[in-house]
Amino acid sequence: MSFQLYPKFFLERIFVRSSVSAPTYELRDSWGRTAHDLRISLTDRCNLRCSYCMPPEGLSWLPTEETLTNDEVNRLVKIAVELLGINKIRFTGGEPLLRKNLDAIIAFAHGLETVDGTAPDLALTTNALSLDKHAHALAAAGLNRVNISLDSIEPQTYAHIAHRDRLADVFRGIDVALDAGLTPVKLNAVALRGANEDGLNDLLLFALRRGLQLRIIEQMPLGPRETWSRSNMVPEEEILEIFSQKFELTPAQHGPHSPARLWNVAGSADHPAGQVGIIASVTHPFCGTCDRTRLTADGQMRTCLFGNVETDLRTPLRAGTTDDEIAALWRDAMALKKPGHGIDDPSFVQPQRYMSEIGG
């Protein structure tokens, strides 16, 4: 859905309405869901080549002029928080630590006030390769916590999946994130059949011993098409079977909008008690409670990670459109959000963009 393609009468209807009425402070869809969580990609570039995310040779990165500037990012974040009721923001990529002046973007977002009168909750998803150099500055700017991608603690397996031998850098990043107070530090691991499923217990043991929260993610159809099939993915039930070989698990409560189903892990002589989460987007989708809206690095709004429909906010942003008018475009596009991602539907079409181009 493009700004240029809106009929003139439709734009006039939106703009007149937004200029004479107060903001609704909500991004509500026709199924009764309201988005309070913004996922914003700061770059499509990445310094890893994870097999479930992109081809080993990488992708053609967005030209700089097509990427939102820092001022444009800040303006859209301000609109989201002050006019649309967003109270949680996660900065993603690609790899967001590659974005210049990231601490300034974080500081700007931290200085905003939500409709509840508080600063928005700010998180970052990162591969942590350079997190040791940035963690303290980001914490000082107002970042609350980090999620770190770590698919294996075995060096050869990590290098096989990421196509880079950088595990030692990730470990340093974890240490500095803990020291900087970016807690809880969560680890995100994609379960990949034939690659890392036999090391999931070691990964959980590592997390428990370090006081980290592990999240295992079912592989999703967001990378090269030949790398994913429903029949070959590792589902939640199998992940639980693997963990039950070594750990005692009991169901735990989780938030109404949490993508992860949580399990308490009983302590033992080998490790302290803790929790582990499984994000089963494929076998147990949580679409009915989804409260997210998304912005890509080139300023396209997406209502669903798995969707193929985008609404161009960059073009009106650069054309001098007012904040209220952009908020109205955002609200109207969000109203068209589908009830679910439809992966099980025979008509499902894998998104044209890879995960790194959308934002995690």
TrEMBL record:
GO terms assigned for molecular function: 4 iron, 4 sulfur cluster binding; cyclic pyranopterin monophosphate synthase activity; GTP 3',8'-cyclase activity; GTP binding; metal ion binding; S-adenosyl-L-methionine binding
Enzyme class: lyase
Binding, [4Fe-4S] cluster 1: 46, 50, 53
Cofactor: [4Fe-4S] cluster
Top-rank lineage group of the source organism: Bacteria
Enzyme Commission code(s) on record: 4.1.99.22
Binding site for S-adenosyl-L-methionine: 52, 94, 149, 220
GO BP annotations listed: Mo-molybdopterin cofactor biosynthetic process
Radical SAM core domain sequence ranges: 30-260
Keyword terms of this UniProt record: 4Fe-4S, GTP-binding, Iron, Iron-sulfur, Lyase, Metal-binding, Molybdenum cofactor biosynthesis, Nucleotide-binding, S-adenosyl-L-methionine
Catalysed reactions listed for this entry: GTP + AH2 + S-adenosyl-L-methionine = (8S)-3',8-cyclo-7,8-dihydroguanosine 5'-triphosphate + 5'-deoxyadenosine + L-methionine + A + H(+)
Matching InterPro entries: Aldolase_TIM, Elp3/MiaA/NifB-like_rSAM, MoaA, MoaA-like, MoaA_NifB_PqqE_Fe-S-bd_CS, MoaA_twitch, MoCo_biosynth_MoaA/MoaC, rSAM
Binding site for [4Fe-4S] cluster 2: 287, 290, 304
NCBIfam families, A to Z: moaA
Assembly description: Monomer and homodimer.
Task of the protein: Catalyzes the cyclization of GTP to (8S)-3',8-cyclo-7,8-dihydroguanosine 5'-triphosphate.
Protein family per UniProt: Belongs to the radical SAM superfamily. MoaA family.
Name recorded for this polypeptide: GTP 3',8-cyclase
Record organism: Arcanobacterium bovis
